[in-house]
Amino acid sequence: MAPEILLLTGILALVIGAVIGLFGGGGSILSVPLLLYVTRLEAHAAIAVSLFMVSATSALGALVHARHGHVELRPALRFAVATSTFAFVGGWTAHFFPGWLLLLLFALLMLTAAFRMLRPGEKLDLSGAPPTSLMVILAGTATGFVSGLIGAGGGFIVVPALVFLVGLGMHQAIGTSLLVITFSSAAGFLGHASKVELEPMVMVAVTLPSLVGAFVGSSLARRLSSERLRQGFGLLVLVLGLFMLVQQLRTAFA
Fold first, then answer.
1. Distance between CA atoms of 214 and 61, rounded to whole angstroms?
2. CA distance from start to end of the chain
3. DSSP letters along 113-141, please?
4. What is the DSSP secondary structure assignment for residue 96, as one 8-state letter?
5. CA angle 36-180-155, nearest 5°?
6. How far is CA 138 from CA 86, 112, 144, in A?
7. pLDDT for the residue 126
8. Could you tell me which residues come within 8 angstroms of residue 186 by beta carbon, excluding any fewer than 6 positions away?
9. pLDDT digit string, tens, across residues 38-96
10. Cβ neighbours of residue 201 under 8 Å, at least 6 residues apart?
11. CA separation, residue 101 to residues 98, 149, 156, 244, 250 (Å)
12. H helices of the chain, where?
């Protein structure tokens, strides 16, 4: 890898790590395009390296959030069991599909996440009956399979699920999501790793800076305006999602 590409990769990975720490997710939504269009990895390899990076980064972010009491172990363990199992299944299943189709699905997920973030927040009514364990496990199962299949850590699915199904506050949902993503992304990586050729230099180049970013982002999460961050990040994901969508549609119909 050329030195200038290595430097650019490290800088962008630092930013991605900060995003993971701040939002409790979103790392794969940004790291897959980085690995595809900057480091020029093949689609399946990009997804696998992204999952490794997100798992390591989320683990550090979860530790920082836990210091502030923002990690709820019980819902995290329920989600982790379901997501880890089905993330492995999703990662293994991914190799039955062409890379362009996985990336097209990824782009659609990015656009969905962007529109959800840009939509004004809604008041939550959490006064009803508490969710059953089955509801939480089913949500974790769907999240895990999707995350493993298309290389998305699942934060933009896990965080809303923890808020709406479990009734956690936003800070607790972010911290708990990071713990869940640590396990689900690791399982998804294992599902991919047996079928792709990995480049250790690229893995180190994206993971080490992202760890630094995760520490900074997790530390700043309590101090910054969540509404402004949500809107700004939503716009970034929207632009990247549209770019990836156009690229994959051109590939599919070329």
1. 5
2. 29
3. HHHHHHSPP------SPPPPHHHHHHHHH
4. G
5. 50
6. 11, 20, 10
7. 42
8. 51, 52, 55, 84
9. 998 888 888 889 889 999 999 999 998 898 888 888 878 887 888 778 878 888 888 78
10. 1
11. 6, 11, 21, 12, 12
12. 3-23, 27-37, 43-67, 73-93, 99-118, 133-150, 155-161, 170-193, 200-220, 226-253
pLDDT over 80 at 231, yes or no? no
What the block records as the tokens of 213 is 């970013």
Region 163-178: mean pLDDT is: 78
**H or E segment at 3?**
helix 3-23
Instruction: Return d(Cα 116, Cα 254) in angstroms, integer.
Output: 31
Scan for tokens 């506050």, then name that residue.
Answer: 169
Tell me how crowded residue 138 is: count the other CB atoms within 10 A of its CB. 14
Amino acid of residue 177: S
